[in-house]
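User: Hi! I'm a student and our assignment asks us to look at how structure tokens line up with a sequence. Could you show me two examples?

Assistant: Happy to help. In each example below, the sequence comes first and the structure tokens follow. Example one:
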Amino acid sequence: MNKVYLYIKNDLELGAILEKVKIVREREIVLVVPEGTKALLHPTNLQIFRNEVEKMNKKVFISTDDEKLRTLALNAGMDLFLDDFAEQQIVDVKPPSLKKTENKSEIYQEEKSEEKKPPTPRKKILSVIKSIFIYLTLAVFMSFIFIVAFQQLQTKAEVIIKPERKEITLDEVIILNVNSLTPDFSKKELPAEIIKLDLNRVETITTTGKIFVSEQNLLKVIFLNYLAREVPLREGTRVVYQNNVFKTTERIDLPPAKDNEPGKIVVNALPFSVVTSDLTIPQDLELEIPGFKNLRTENGSLWTELVKAKVVENYSLGSGTKIGSVSPEDITNIKLNLQNSLINSLKTQLAIKYQNYFYIFDENLVNFEIKNISHQVGEKTDKLSATGKIDIETLGVNKKAFDDFIRNIVNKEILSKEEKLIVRNIYYEKINLLDFNKKNKTMTLAVRLKAVLEPEINVERIKYDIKGKSLKDAKDLYLAKVIKTGGSITIKIFPQWKDRFPTDPERIRVLIK
């Protein structure tokens, strides 16, 4: 039996290759495969190809220079074609030629010899009706064929699989060891690197201690006593001008009135609560004394009529200077601010410099030191600054290496329970530092992780299992196996009246959600 050559391009999908094999009439085919044909370079696809060819009752020999494909084909139980066979080659499939008419001249002569009788009107009408009927029938038939063919070619399907996921929580003790070269899964030990980083920083805050005001900011106030007795005024006595409050800087004893003249004494007052910008107060202006408001003497006279306060000279608040001082709270705050700022900067720098690493950051591994504080408690200054230093020494591992190590631990747990599941995601719920031995360069960690598992699903296998099958058969015989542990499957077929999957697996889309 002769073999035929079938040449394919290296970018064809598996379904397209099977269709080309299907249309070849001969049973034995030499499939010439160029190097790098991806559709046949996967063991699963090659097994599917072999099974489909056997269903066609055909024998396919693989002819290729691709050594990887030759190895995979032999492993899959397929035959390799020997290059010394001389066979015919299929270039294209041509339609059959029309059969020639024999004795054409005799038929012509016979037709020519017959007498042609003119048709009657009735026959003409019947002929026209017959022709119209034939054309209409042909048009309907062709339309039906076209619609069926179009729908068949356009048929497509989508299968959305939502497998039931399972979560397991594991508590593991992992050892990071700088001296290890390869992972040791029995000891749960992983090679690591030393990570060191140090930073310096200056922090500045505004002081909140007592405010010192220069002489230019002091308001000179003269108190007038119209009583016949002495009036004591405590330090901090308030005087007010248009809601701007000043407080006296010392205690005074206001002398009594004498010879129809009020007792007088001049005292300085500090601005306490100033609400007017660029405040100016003219000389001799009378100020309010809130402490005497609504108070009366023993004989019923108002104190505000007997004790008065006036401005000694023109006053302008903007002409003076206010200076703060350092309070004990300022020292505490600048230390805390500096420490927090350095720790945040350290975390940021580690994240940037070691972005591809899994590393341990623990404040017990951090050394923080105050290098200098600019002022002491009580010193006059508006700004307080401090210089500090922070450093850390820890161990780190490449992120991918760490994730692979953890996945291996999870996979062993799955195998121990004889479950056919794969790891979908891993979440680290808690990682605690148990010990850091700087001398031995080892770090012991307690890791609590949550693994999300789901059934292993072969999308390509599903496509070839359900292609051409009825909706019911596909659900009951094939898709039900996929979610036997739980989950759901949604199937969409276009056009909607179709109840059978496309025969071309490339027109079936399988999604895992």
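Example two works the same way, sequence first and then tokens:
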Amino acid sequence: MGKLRDVRRKLAKRRVTGSCRISRRQEEFFRIRQFRRVYDRSSGKFRFQISYETHTPLTQRTLAVAEAFGLGVDEAQRFTVLDTELRIGPRDVVYVTGDSGSGKSILLRAIRADLGEEAVDLSEVQVDPDKPIIETVGASVEEGLELLSRVGLNDAFLFLRTYSQLSDGQKYRYRIAKLIESGKQWWLMDEFAACLDRDTAKIIAFNLQKIARQQGKAVIVATTHTDLFEDLRPSVHVHKRFGSEISVKYYPNVQATECSLVREMCLVEGSLEDWRRLAGFHYRSHKATAPRRIFCLKRGDELCGVIVYCYPPPACFGRRIVLPKLSMKELNEKLSTISRVVVHPKYRSIGLGAKLIRESLPLVGTPYVELIAVMARYSPFAERAGMCKIAEQSPHKQALAVAEVLRSLGFNLQLLGSEKYVLSRLQALSSGDLEKVKEAFCRNNHLRFMKHFFTHRVFGSKKDYADAVKVASVERLAHLIKICGFLLQSKVYLFWSGQSEPSPNLVRIGLFSACSLHMVK
């Protein structure tokens, strides 16, 4: 303390006499000099010898500190940060860990500089904050949906949001989708998933390594967190300590096939209350008609996913390909329909949809199970669970006929799923045009249209249906148009058989062995 008091007195005296003179050279701050960095492309080896040369700026305070502690500040000091050799190939997954300030970012910047145009850093990804994300990824709708689904942005509502409307975790996933879209061979990410909770970080790490290995790309991530090893499954692990100390370990380049969080989940019997808790995350509706069995995936007391099995409808496309004609009683005894599958947004893209189906199929209590899904066109989760894709249905002709009338009246067919939009369009129509809409529904009496008016009985006559349409309110007509929008979608019919003995239809089309319980892994 006495030394510091002496320093203060001297500085006070200098301020009075103006004796503290600092040259231009002395005012320079830290200067960084890179001494050697070599990348041998033929061997895939990076050789780094990186040092820092520093000059301390001479100010009244730095002089005070130097004098108080006996430090020299008028000479350059050199610090070695990296002195190592790394073997990294264009398909490796590299995990760089270490404390903040240990030199991880320096290492990534050095690698990035050597790779040039072959690499892209996550920080370089350009985003448009004001357009729906489906507009900004992929060359087509299908490609965009596939890219977004791969990184866990596979909620129908998310596709329509802008980047600025996403959460931090969703933004991070979106930027990875753009990274994949770049087509670059090397993907670099500093401060990897640092702003995310650890569960989300593990899910993103698992998906990143899976996609990179499937596409034959290299990934290099740097982070202070050491809890991602199992999900990232690196082929090269670099642990950077302070100074020049560094540890490098090499492992087989093998894909992690299951996220570590999945092993913490178990399937249990569920209830309608469980479905209602996650219903808001489903793109269709909160309703689950006539549930037969409900199962949940739980991680401790956390609800991760729900699957709802219902009694089958009287008829649907694809069914006659695999089953003979059955009475309604026989259908209810032998067949269940998967009505809803929903996974909590936090846990999407780690295979929980497939896990829900695969583990619940043998428990539902019927020898056959069917699934009709739009999302199955873009994400084959049901096929991964052991179901067989039987047929793909084009839009219904009755729905197409109604859609043509709506188009002629100025409706945007892509917005038919929005009752708010449809209602505003209907209210703007003249009475004559409104009659044209009603007449189109009367002529095209699809079963789904009729069901809307006869909810308390299975069938209603065509005359009763036409009479109901003619007096329908604008609000009810808007809902009917929304149903038409659903019928315009292309759907996939999938089937599963748990019977030990094949049905004749399955044998005839050669699908029994694939659909049998023994094939559900």
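Here is something you could point out in your write-up. The chain has 21 helices and 16 strands.
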